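Problem: given the chain below (160 residues), write out its structure.
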Amino acid sequence: MPHYPDREPVWSAELADLEAQHSERFLQALRSITQLMQVRVMPTLLVPEKRTVPYLREAAARFQADLLLVYSTRIQTFRRDRFIGTDEVRARCLAESVLLDVRTGIVAHTARTAEGIAARKSPGDLNFSETIAKAEGDATGKALLKLADTVVAYLQDASK
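Solution.
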């Protein structure tokens, strides 16, 4: 879970489940590509601290991967009570990805997507921080699915 200094850290089983569901949907979308034999998540123990292309390629080669999809996400959260409404939040996620050929180091495909979510505190939320975390998680999940869709489209077009 990300840490935000301006609000208390949030963790709940529901948030963990949502994050797992978003990750699984992302992987399922990538697994739908018939040209790929396997789609796996690289263990974090193999991800280098210094995330440069040469180090990422080396880690992917050790993982015996032919292609490596690297992505990053950034979240923006808006929660101004007087403009949006009491206990309402808007979260926007910007996601970027690079599909890298591990053997050659060539960047095969890049994509950038954004997704926004508006949410209101529900009675089941522990506090407003949990509402914000859910909105951020949903925005991230939707942005990652859009990224997966662009990779799927690229690889399907490339194989024609």
